[in-house]
Amino acid sequence: MKREYVIKPVIEHHYPTIQYGKGIYLYDEQGQTYIDGCSGAVTAGLGHGVQDIIDAMIEQANKVSFVYRSQFTSEPTEKLAEKLCELAPGNDYWTFFVNSGSEATETAMKIAIQHWQEKGRPGKNKVISRRMSYHGITLGALSMSGHVLRRRRFIPLLEDFPVVMPPYCYRCPLGKTAGNCQLACADDLATAIKRIGAEHIAAFIAEPIIGAAGGAIVPPEGYYKKIKAICELYDILFIADEVMTGIARTGAMFGMEHYEVEPDLMALGKGMSAGYTPMAATLVKDHVMEPIRQGTKSIMSGHTYSANPQSAAVSLAVLTYIEKHQLVRAAESKGVYLLNLLRQLAQQIEIIGDVRGKGLLLAIEFVANRTDKSPFPAALSVTSRIIENAFQKGLLVYPAAGAIDGEGDAIIVAPPLIISEEEIDQLVRILAESIREVMAEISP
Ligand code: PLP
């Protein structure tokens, strides 16, 4: 066998070589076609090979691709930040550009801490997050993540940040019944703040809809309004991690719009450049920037490629494309269509415990027993089997396994926002076949 040079996610696993992509389809060099049912890692929201984006990329490359942010600004970066401010709730955000979702959440944490330092409250330097959350893989971002599997190996290096209960109504971690719980999971934040002391806490971070750490978990009515009120009461900044939910994915430009809450900081990534170039950002409300503007006037963060004009031009073209083709509306209506089909599947396939999500960020949770919702034993690898089976049939879906403190099985279905109803039908047909085949394999 030929020697390998690239360290892949699983060493010595065979990964097909991709040749090209068009729309929702990817084609490998063996001639296999794949439906991109999860936009890669919930990223390629416009689908593949969109000419408008390629043109914008070439146009900018013909001018200048890179300048260092400490030496120059550029027209695309200025225009992109202005556009983000115009689109974001409240229209009063500043933008700090980075290159990945992990950098965006970690930068949000650092800016929150700096905000309190500039206000003469340096003791406020912890961030509260939730169990079942994922905010990124760098050590700061991982410190804020309640993702058991991804943390495990690095525990000694991580900050011991507090975590609170997630709004996971299908399987309430506080043992409550949905609709009759007085939002006890939101109260858990207030309890944690009182226990630790607000004087030690800079911010609370949450994904508007929980992604990789549980699978499109939508909070109950009123949850974020209560969370924001608690944060305001105790002088704690609210960071919305919109890396997965942001930029049209859930049928709103930002996930938090569904809950009519304006976060103090937002982290963006993935869909912001729809996979055409690495690009991410931390959005910061004017009132959070104010003491920094008045004080040291500089944020101690940033990366070599931060705010490079090449990625900014691409991201600007992506936002323009989303508006021109009304993809926020498309995500909403196609999401309803797909959700209904998945709910119909749930009536026919008994290992489907829950179907949930918003817009085109949807998920299916699998259970061994629908009545008591007991999960499959981890050793059965139900999620991996379904993903592999679908892959062999030419359909890509994304894992959200390990939802219940390292256990549990779920997949995310999040196709490009340009998907047609016929293509959704095709996606669901293949997925149903894969789930049925795996169910037959694991049945005693
Ligand atoms: N935050 C959320 C909600 C994510 O889903 C992810 C990635 O899946 C990240 C942060 C980290 O982003 P990246 O992989 O670009 O570093």
Task: Tell me about this structure.
With 444 residues, the protein is α/β, with parallel strands linked by helices. It has 2 domains: 18-49 and 326-442, Alpha-Beta Complex (Aspartate Aminotransferase, domain 1); 53-324, 3-Layer(aba) Sandwich (Aspartate Aminotransferase, domain 2), CATH 3.40.640. Helices cover 36% and strands 16% of the residues. The chain has 13 helices and 15 strands. The protein has helices at residues 39-42, 51-63, 75-87, 101-118, 139-143, 148-151, 184-196, 223-233, 286-294, 309-324, 327-348, 382-392, 421-442, and strands spanning 18-22, 25-28, 33-36, 93-98, 126-130, 163-164, 201-206, 237-241, 265-268, 280-285, 352-358, 361-366, 395-396, 398-399, 409-413. It is globular, with a radius of gyration of 22 Å. It binds pyridoxal-5'-phosphate. Pyridoxal-5'-phosphate is lined by residues 41, 100-102, 105, 134-137, 207, 211-212, 241, 243-244, 269. The site of pyridoxal-5'-phosphate has 16 residues, from helix 4.
Descriptive keywords:
444 residues; alpha/beta; Aspartate Aminotransferase, domain 1; Aspartate Aminotransferase, domain 2; 4-stranded mixed sheet; 13 helices; 15 strands; PyrdxlP-dep_Trfase; Aminotrans_3; transferase; PyrdxlP-dep_Trfase_small
In brief:
With about 450 residues, the protein is of the alpha/beta class.
Q: Secondary structure elements and their pairing?
A:
Blueprint: E1 18-22, E2 25-28, E3 33-36, H1 39-42, H2 51-63, H3 75-87, E4 93-98, H4 101-118, E5 126-130, H5 139-143, H6 148-151, E6 163-164, H7 184-196, E7 201-206, H8 223-233, E8 237-241, E9 265-268, E10 280-285, H9 286-294, H10 309-324, H11 327-348, E11 352-358, E12 361-366, H12 382-392, E13 395-396, E14 398-399, E15 409-413, H13 421-442
Parallel strand pairs: 3-13, 5-6, 5-7, 7-8, 8-9
Antiparallel strand pairs: 1-2, 2-3, 4-10, 9-10, 11-12, 12-15, 14-15
The protein binds pyridoxal-5'-phosphate.
